[in-house]
Write a structure and sequence with these properties.
Blueprint: H1 15-35, H2 40-51, E1 59-62, H3 68-75, E2 81-85, H4 88-96, E3 102-105, E4 121-124, H5 136-143, E5 150-156, H6 157-160, H7 163-174, E6 178-189, E7 194-203
Parallel strand pairs: 1-2, 1-4, 2-3, 4-5
Antiparallel strand pairs: 5-7, 6-7
Helix pairs in contact: 1-4, 2-3
Length: 204
């Protein structure tokens, strides 16, 4: 078992405890997840790029953390990215990377400030699951898209163990409110044997 903050990442806690964990982790986050081959940001960025007609359209990186997701999006060709996160210290690290048009701190369970249609896509890379954001966030993100907008997100193995997570996706697609454009199971943190599903949905 790896040492460091990663061993604490998947335990239950409330929003304030989550913010504190990520504030404390911010300085060493990139190095720790990098040591274990954090692959999901690159996989999500590539999946979204494959479904996007205009890489210059604005994207919202929800739960952007230290900006590893923003870096992956930039490397995939996206040029206009705004970031949101609970953790002020994570946002400081993201700001230092110089990748984002804007960065803002958010509170848990608060509606998104933008209007549907402001963003062509929203990303939630490694955001929803055990020890992180609850599945209710999924509705918030989908509500923040206009018809035709894309959501790219991931569920790691821990998130996939909770049937309500996949059930939420299935509810949106089976009801016709969204279309599943792609789904791929692959490496998340291969250094500790974790995999993840990467999804791209289009709101209908």
């Amino acid at each position: 078992m790896t040492k460091g903050f990663l061993t604490q990442a998947y335990g239950p806690r409330d929003a304030d405890q989550t913010r504190q964990l990520y504030d404390d982790w911010a300085a060493s986050y990139d190095a720790e997840v990098g040591e274990h081959g954090y692959a999901t940001p690159g996989r999500c960025a590539a999946a979204l790029a494959a479904q996007s007609a205009d890489l210059t359209a604005p994207i919202l990186d929800f739960g952007c953390g230290t900006g590893l997701s923003g870096l992956a999006l930039k490397l995939a060709g996206f040029t206009m990215i705004d970031g949101l996160d609970l953790s002020a210290d994570m946002l400081k690290s993201a700001d230092e990377k110089g990748l984002y048009r804007s960065l803002s701190q958010i509170e848990a369970d608060v509606p998104l400030a933008h209007s549907p249609g402001d963003y062509a896509a929203i990303t939630a890379i490694g955001v929803i699951g055990a020890g992180a954001a609850p599945i209710s966030v999924f509705d918030t993100l989908m509500d923040g898209l206009a018809p035709g907008g894309h959501l790219v997100f991931s569920f790691n193995d821990h998130a996939l163990e909770d049937p309500q997570n996949q059930a939420k996706v299935d509810d949106w697609t089976s009801s016709g409110r969204a279309t599943l454009l792609s789904q791929d199971y692959g490496p998340h943190l291969p250094g500790i044997g974790l995999q993840s599903n990467v999804y791209v949905l289009a709101k209908t």
